[in-house]
Amino acid sequence: MNINIDFVNKLRISGLRPTKQRLKICEVLFNTEKTFHFTVNDLSKIISEKLNQKISLATIYNTVHAFKKKGYLKEISMNSDKTYFDTNTTHHHHFFDSSTMKLIDLSDDQVEKIKINKALPGKKISSVEILVKIENE
């Protein structure tokens, strides 16, 4: 099966036309052996360096957010001005290394069971994901 058909389907399911630029974005995001974390600016640099392509930040931003909405990417907000995305959409935790500004996956079996002692009226916990911030000693 041609991998581009998978990319075209992902784009269409996400409500996007499969343009050449969006197919290049898919190639970088989904045609890798390992999952990875990125910001929209990181992704723009990767596309520029790996594929020697220039794609507008608006196109990258809109494509990434459409993929996130459909569950193809996970969003990890660090603060009000820094958002990372993860191509690994399974349930897992993260280390955030403030010296390198990198996220590092942390699997469930590397974290003890978490107990939450507070409930919010009319709400239920759907998942718990831990973000552990680390820095150099």
Protein model, in words:
It is a single chain. The protein is α+β, with helices and mostly antiparallel strands. The protein has one domain (about 5-135): Winged helix-like DNA-binding domain superfamily/Winged helix DNA-binding domain (Arc Repressor Mutant, subunit A). It has four helices and six strands; from the N terminus they run ααβααβββββ. The strands form two sheets. A three-stranded antiparallel beta sheet has the order 1-3-2. A three-stranded mixed beta sheet has the order 5-4-6, with no helix packed on it.
What's the quick description here?
With 137 residues, this protein is α+β, with helices and mostly antiparallel strands. Helices cover 34% and strands 20% of the residues. The strands form 2 sheets. The protein has a 3-stranded antiparallel sheet with strand order 1-3-2.
